[in-house]
Amino acid sequence: MKINTAEFVISNSEVDKCPKDRLPEYAFIGRSNVGKSSLINMLTNHKNLAKTSSKPGKTQLINHFKINNNWFLVDLPGYGYARVSKKTKAVFQQFIMDYFEQREQLVCAFVLIDIRLEAQKIDLEFMEYLGESEIPFAIIFTKSDKLGKNKVNNHVEAYKKQLLAGDWAEMPPYFVTSSLEAKGKEGILEYIGQINED
Ligand code: GTP
Ligand code: MG
């Protein structure tokens, strides 16, 4: 699938204010700074469609981007960012949870994982939550340019092992990406294209 048009529609912190069109949508979630906004820019061939920063906590709202006038990409705030106050964090998490619990148009969540790191508790817990909530998800490993090719494979294998040693019977669909090198784009877009056609 090709992305021909990508336009910003709305940012907000309330699920009720998200677009009312019943178009399918795909949300990007993961720890702060993992590369969610950068990945959206890479997928859409836009430098600054989604705002990025080297400092964690850049995206603070639910951001809808309409693609090909036909479906949405959704950029979400990161979880696990310790520097916001406890109160802000609680609100953050509540509206992210509201989004996942109430947004019926959500057809698939992409959970972003920094390929350099071992499986983190917060990511595992979030995937468990998605599983329990019966929300389909896929994993996107980010920042693969930071590791050599052999290491990329080793880290993916190690991650698989960690997941399978836990509650998961099989590895979810996954993609290895680098927004810096525009790597992994086709796989993700094909995956979305197939779901949209079903
Ligand atoms: P929050 O909005 O704060 O939750 O962060 P985010 O997950 O949206 O991350 P963002 O896209 O803003 O990127 C965070 C930092 O990682 C920025 O400095 C990016 O340039 C960098 N980054 C993102 N993707 C990649 C990548 O593929 N390779 C490298 N080397 N750096 C990346
Ligand atoms: Mg962001």
TrEMBL record:
List each copy of the EngB-type G domain by range: 22-198
Alphabetically list the UniProt keywords.
Cell cycle, Cell division, GTP-binding, Magnesium, Metal-binding, Nucleotide-binding, Septation
Q: What is this protein called?
A: Probable GTP-binding protein EngB
Described purpose of this protein according to its UniProt entry: Necessary for normal cell division and for the maintenance of normal septation.
Quote the InterPro entries the UniProt record gives. G_ENGB_dom, GTP-bd, GTP-bd_ribosome_bio_YsxC, P-loop_NTPase
Query: Which interval of the chain is the signal sequence?
Result: none
Checking Gene3D superfamilies in the record gives: P-loop containing nucleotide triphosphate hydrolases
Record family assignment: Belongs to the TRAFAC class TrmE-Era-EngA-EngB-Septin-like GTPase superfamily. EngB GTPase family.
> Which coenzyme or cofactor does it need?
Mg(2+)
Q: Taxonomically, which superkingdom?
A: Bacteria
